[in-house]
């Protein structure tokens, strides 16, 4: 994988879902009344305009419609929001435009409409390939519906991906190996594979604390992780990031924007951004509650509630934390340029001796497969 020139991404957050999954701590909201999509389109367009006025001219290399459940939007809503992006920034000829979708049959029928609206890549939240696991994860679709949606995605888009969650209760390495092999048979170029984590303020957190939800212990989780790496690599989808696997050249370009420390604008309720204004990197976040965000945008042109200028140390630490998630690793010289100091060669040597990192002939620093499960500790050691 080659390291491209700096990119500029736009993240668009659609915060609504049909139901809240018990493991999810994302900014997603269930509303039983109809959503006024036209009103939200106007608000998205207004926040895009205000943000573009701050960034100045940029060429957008990737757009990601995330959520929530963006596939609850009508295709014309998606088209109108994408048109707003195009009015205020230049769009690269080869722009990647991804939309996250739930694989219910109703939403899958919209895929061709999304394609016509400008989406050229879809990411499906499949999560599991057996109905019992899907039910326990709070998903509303069946495995059969998921595979039908994948088939429709394959017909509508040249590029598509889907997510699976592993390290589920009672899951064994043999079970995961079979499920993963079946998934790869349906995945053309990209899979996102996430270990189930128990997040605070979710229903799963309460069940886990009460002993009613048992997740794999550390050794089993590591075994499942190793199966993930081995099976995907054997089928030509090596990990290019700790939880993402792709055929060479099929990596999600938008997510690479985050991991490589490039700029991205965050638009919509609860969206985060990293934008450069007058040569300084700003960490921006918007109001999470959709209705409050809407009123803020209508009143003042944006829903921003946090706008922090990152100092050199913060930028360098963020670059290290995100960049070491990638198989390509980081160039320590970029860290030095950001931090004003180099990484400690003694710490690098020690972590290298322990087999957690490698340094190649060009000087790029990479975390090894055995180092990835303890990535946080590796990053903390290097940043100290």
Please write out the topology.
Elements: E1 8-14, E2 16-17, E3 29-30, H1 37-55, E4 59-67, H2 75-88, E5 90-101, H3 105-108, H4 111-117, E6 121-127, H5 131-136, H6 143-156, E7 159-166, H7 173-186, E8 190-195, H8 203-209, H9 218-234, E9 239-241, E10 244-246, H10 253-259, E11 263-267, E12 272-277, E13 280-286, H11 290-300, E14 304-309, H12 312-323, H13 332-339, H14 345-353, E15 357-359, E16 365-367, H15 375-383
Parallel strand pairs: 1-4, 1-11, 2-3, 4-5, 5-6, 6-7, 7-8
Antiparallel strand pairs: 8-10, 9-10, 12-13, 13-14, 15-16
Helix pairs in contact: 1-2, 2-4, 7-9, 12-13
Question: What report would you give on this structure?
Answer:
The chain has two domains: 8-258, Aldolase class I (TIM Barrel), CATH 3.20.20.70; 313-383, Winged helix-like DNA-binding domain superfamily/Winged helix DNA-binding domain (Arc Repressor Mutant, subunit A). It contains 15 helices and 16 strands. The chain is globular and about 60 Å long. 41% of the residues lie in helices and 23% in strands. Helix 1 runs parallel beside helix 2 (75-88), helix 2 (75-88) packs parallel to helix 4 (111-117) and helix 12 (312-323) packs antiparallel against helix 13. It is an alpha/beta fold. It has a nine-stranded mixed beta sheet with strand order 9-10-8-7-6-5-4-1-11, sandwiched between helices. Strand 12 and strand 13 (280-286) form a beta hairpin.
């Amino acid at each position: 994988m080659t390291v491209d020139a700096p990119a500029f991404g736009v993240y668009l957050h659609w915060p609504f879902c049909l139901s809240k999954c018990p493991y999810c701590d994302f900014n997603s909201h269930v509303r039983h009344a109809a959503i006024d999509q036209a009103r939200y389109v106007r608000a998205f367009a207004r926040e895009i305009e205000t943000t573009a006025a701050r960034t100045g001219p940029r060429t957008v290399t990737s757009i990601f419609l995330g959520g929530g459940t963006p596939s609850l939007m009508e295709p014309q809503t998606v088209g109108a929001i994408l048109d707003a992006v195009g009015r205020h920034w230049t769009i690269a000829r080869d722009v990647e435009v991804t939309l996250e979708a739930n694989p219910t049959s109703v939403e899958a029928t919209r895929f061709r409409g999304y394609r016509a609206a400008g989406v050229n890549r879809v990411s499906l939240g499949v999560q599991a390939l057996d109905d019992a696991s899907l039910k326990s994860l709070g998903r509303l679709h069946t495995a059969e519906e998921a595979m039908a949606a994948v088939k429709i995605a394959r017909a509508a888009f040249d590029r598509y991906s889907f997510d699976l969650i592993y390290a589920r209760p009672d899951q064994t390495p043999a079970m995961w190996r079979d499920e993963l092999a079946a998934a790869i048979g349906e995945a053309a170029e990209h899979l996102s594979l996430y270990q189930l984590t128990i997040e605070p303020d979710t229903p799963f957190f309460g069940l886990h604390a009460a002993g009613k939800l048992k997740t794999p212990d550390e050794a089993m989780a590591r075994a499942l992780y190793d199966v993930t790496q081995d099976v995907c690599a054997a089928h030509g989808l090596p990990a290019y990031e700790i939880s993402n696997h792709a055929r060479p050249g099929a990596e999600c370009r938008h997510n690479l924007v985050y991991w490589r420390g490039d700029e991205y604008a965050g638009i919509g309720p609860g969206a985060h951004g990293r934008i450069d204004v007058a040569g300084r990197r700003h960490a921006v976040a918007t109001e999470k509650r959709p209705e409050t965000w809407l009123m803020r945008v209508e009143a003042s042109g944006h829903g921003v509630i946090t706008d922090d200028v990152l100092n050199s140390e913060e930028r360098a630490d963020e670059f290290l934390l995100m960049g070491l998630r990638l198989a390509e690793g980081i160039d320590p010289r970029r860290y030095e340029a950001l931090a004003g100091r180099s990484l400690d060669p003694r710490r690098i040597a020690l972590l290298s001796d322990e087999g957690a990192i490698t340094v190649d002939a060009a000087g790029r620093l990479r975390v090894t497969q055995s180092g990835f499960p303890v990535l946080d500790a590796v990053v903390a050691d290097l940043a100290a």
